[in-house]
């Protein structure tokens, strides 16, 4: 059962920001994650502030800098099916197509996908874990087959978004608006590791709203991709995933950005893999070395050691595929 709450349908961004200043107010966009959290009492809300009718936050268009601007309320399905994104930013189109199920892709929004809450069953269940303000992470000595192998510290969640690692690999920026005005942050700087604050997932300040995401101009020679391994073909979150954005000069990799999903509490940048391939021709042997390098600092838990060969395989295969 849902606890009682007030409901407000904002008519403008400023209206939404003003209502979010109320204690216990939460933001509603597509609602695919929010309503589940409220129903399961992951958190409660005194007021739900809906921005679902703000047309200025929807759509894909060319940005002033020549890149691409994607409104925060653009559905995941629209991103996956956008021809321009498919041609120039293939990793994002592919990642969007891998999100959840067709029904959820048609309802869920880009902003919501970036800001969704963790899927840890202790956090989602009736456990007062450290992310809820408690004093322990129950996954440390509990069921941790789907938890992180990097960056966990005192909380072992994995970041649930598919679009986030793809956008991070593509060097996108998130534009925010709140009580103190507007600002922009890189997607790979949007998320917080637990050792900073285990009760927060993002750098969003109270009352701040994602308005749009901006992709830079696609560099000549850019090739990007996203690969996701999961238990079921539909609905499931990543057991392991990799987003690649490589800029080729001839057969040589001039620039590389590699981010992992299903690996850490944030989209995890595999700098070791980037270092292996940057400046070199991407041959099968090199792809194998990069895959090994990507997991060299991993710290698997008692039940998720299977993630190491899984990551190694999908990274190697995806590097070989993108170089073909």
What does this structure look like?
The chain has 324 residues and is of the alpha+beta class. The chain has helices at residues 13-20, 34-39, 76-81, 83-88, 90-97, 102-107, 110-115, 121-124, 163-169, 271-277, 284-294, 307-323; strands at residues 6-9, 25-28, 47-50, 60-62, 68-71, 173-178, 181-186, 209-215, 222-229, 240-249, 252-261, 268-269. It has three domains: 1-53, Uridine Diphospho-n-acetylenolpyruvylglucosamine Reductase, domain 2, CATH 3.30.43.10; 56-115 and 158-215, Uridine Diphospho-n-acetylenolpyruvylglucosamine Reductase, domain 3, CATH 3.30.465.10; 222-323, Enolase-like, domain 1 (2-Layer Sandwich). Helices cover 28% and strands 21% of the residues.
Question: What is the molecular shape?
Answer: globular
Structural class by SSE content: alpha+beta
> What would CATH call the architecture of the largest domain?
2-Layer Sandwich
Strand content: 15-25%
Instruction: Determine the number of helices (DSSP H or I, runs of at least 4 residues).
Output: 12
Overall radius of gyration = 19 Å
Gap from first CA to last CA = 53 Å
* Uncertain stretches of 5 or more adjacent residues: none
> Which fold name corresponds to the CATH topology of the largest domain?
Uridine Diphospho-n-acetylenolpyruvylglucosamine Reductase, domain 3
The main β sheet shows up as: 5 strands, antiparallel
Number of domains: 3
